[in-house]
Amino acid sequence: MATRSRSHDAQTRKDDLRIGKPIWLTTPHSTVPAAKKLPRGRFDVIVIGAGISGALMAEALTRAGKSVLILDRRPAVRGSTPASTAMIQHEIDIPLTRLSRKIGPDHAGRAWVRSVAAVADLVALSARLGLDCGMGPKPALYLAGDEMGARALRNEAEARHGVGIKADYLKRADLIERFGIDRPAAILSQDSASENPAQVTAGLLRAVLSRKAQLVSPVEITDMAELPSGIALATRNGEVLVAEYAFFCTGYEYLPQMKTASHHVTSTWALASRPMPHLPGWMRDMIVWEAADPYLYFRSDEAGRIIAGGEDEEAADSNSDPEKLAKKAGIIARKLHDLTGVNIGKPAYTWSAPFSVTDDGLPIIARVPGYVRCFAAMGYGGNGITFSVIAAQIVAAAIAGSDDPDAAIFRYR
Ligand SMILES: Cc1cc2nc3c(=O)[nH]c(=O)nc-3n(C[C@H](O)[C@H](O)[C@H](O)COP(=O)(O)OP(=O)(O)OC[C@H]3O[C@@H](n4cnc5c(N)ncnc54)[C@H](O)[C@@H]3O)c2cc1C
Questions:
Q1: How do residues 204-222 score in pLDDT, each as one tens digit?
Q2: Phi-psi bin for 346: left (phi > 0), alpha (psi -120 to 50), beta?
Q3: For residue 229, with 0-12 CB atoms within 10 Å meaning exposed, 13-18 middle and 19 or more buried, which class applies?
Q4: Which atom of ligand 1 lies at the shortest distance from residue 384's CA?
Q5: Which residue among 119, 253, 375 is best mutated to probe the pocket of ligand 1, counting the most ligand atoms within 8 A of its Cβ?
Q6: Cβ(383) – ligand 1 distance below 6 Å
Q7: Domains of the chain
């Protein structure tokens, strides 16, 4: 037993999704013990992946009375979820005006409105389950940058009003007076939140285990086949598991059956400062990001640390370069200083990880092409937590035999 677990640890270290050390891996209550042996019997649903997405899916299914088995090839909560900076934004990566041009105003407006609801749903769920995860609502400031200037931001604020989302347009003078930030304009919005992503995921998993779900790790699913009355999943060790349905919440890794040209894996970088006792008051209570490419984003946590990130690159593997991590962390810290005047000094934690996007900026949450009983969610971009809530809702509805009204927006493409 001991030998097996050592070799698994060695394998997962070599096979880490991240380099560097995300701060959340140092916080308490961010691990969940898993069984090593696969259980006998048939489950209603097998959820593959024990990150935020799998945890939310398992929570929705067990709440609906389904029997659930969760599998992961790594320990639970050790995929990309703990790399998240966990700004739970209703503001999704593609502005409403731009998304409307890409996919039409109806679907774009519904995607934005659904994201507002998803953040509120997650805040309410965390409260209902009593999760100790630093969850709290936060206003968000979206700054003009090289991708959107003052006029584009004004149009964006009006477009959001048009679908019923609150958004205050701020001029340069307002921004300087209220935040000491010199940019041509910004949108100030409510309806977002932040949390500790490892604690919320571990808390959700503990809740589903208390409802008799089972979590087994390490187990890697390498293939699948649809049967007349179920879905068969093959493990790397040669076992075959059968369930009514399977849902792949596998982040940036997926089986060949799920590959699609509209989905790309990219790279991103993040850091956390040491606790900063003298932060300007507004920085303690705010999510900030900018309409720029590459962009900077930041927030603070309960201890007064700045959590910041950005500098995304399109190459899937550039996040595995330690020298680049040091360089990118330096750029993020310098940009933060230039924008806010706050010097964080040497970051206490730096890390980098893969990130995945789709051509239109919305995730895929749908049945895998050619399968009736197998679903996948992928391409979350910078809104993995918000979109995971929507994924759990859409797939739970499909498994219950009803159609989510927004499912077509997130179809396979
Ligand atoms: C630096 C960074 C900052 C981010 N910031 C934010 C943010 O501020 N806000 C936000 O909403 N999102 C953010 N994101 C995105 C968000 O973190 C991710 O989209 C989200 O955590 C993905 O969760 P997941 O559960 O889908 O994937 P993961 O957490 O990666 O979990 C997938 C799991 O599936 C397992 N797995 C994979 N393949 C198999 C297989 N074949 N068999 C068995 N198990 C398998 C993996 O081991 C893994 O544990 C950020 C991401 C990064 C990298």
A1: 999 999 999 999 999 999 9
A2: beta
A3: exposed
A4: 19
A5: 253
A6: yes
A7: 2-83+198-261+361-410 (3.50.50.60), 128-193+262-358 (3.30.9.10)
Largest Cα separation within the chain, whole Å, is 65
On whether the CB atoms of residues 115 and 167 are closer than 8 A, the answer is: no
**Cβ burial, residue 239 (10 Å; 0-12/13-18/19+):** exposed
Local structure of residue 410 (DSSP, 8 states): G
Q: How far is the CA of 157 from the centre of ligand 1 (A)?
A: 30
Strand residue runs (E) in 72-127: 87-88
Upper half-sphere CA count for residue 362 (Cβ side, 13 Å): 30
> How open is the CA angle 262-268-271, to the nearest 5 degrees?
155
Residues 43, 127: Cα–Cα separation, whole Å: 28
Does ligand 1 lie within 6 Å of residue 353's CB atom?
yes
Q: For residue 7, name the pLDDT band (cuts at 50, 70, 90).
A: very low
User: Does the Cβ of 220 fall within 6 Å of ligand 1?
Assistant: yes
R_g over Cα of the chain: 21
355-362 average pLDDT score: 94
Q: Is the pLDDT of residue 9 over 50?
A: no
How remote is the CA of residue 33 from the centroid of ligand 1, in Å? 19
pLDDT tens-digit series, residues 295-323: 999 999 999 999 999 999 999 989 999 99
pLDDT 10s digits, 56-68: 999 999 999 999 9
Place of tokens 């509120």: 120
Mutational pocket test of ligand 1: of 204, 380, 388, the residue with most ligand atoms within 8 Å of the beta carbon: 380
Task: Compute CA distances 309 → 8, 95, 268, 285, 331, whole Å.
Answer: 30, 19, 8, 17, 10
Residues near 17 by beta carbon (within 8 Å), at least 6 away in sequence = 79, 80, 83, 251, 252, 353, 354
Q: Which residues contact 101 (CB under 8 A, 6 or more apart)?
A: none
Percent of the chain scoring above 70 in pLDDT: 96
State pTM to two decimals: 0.96
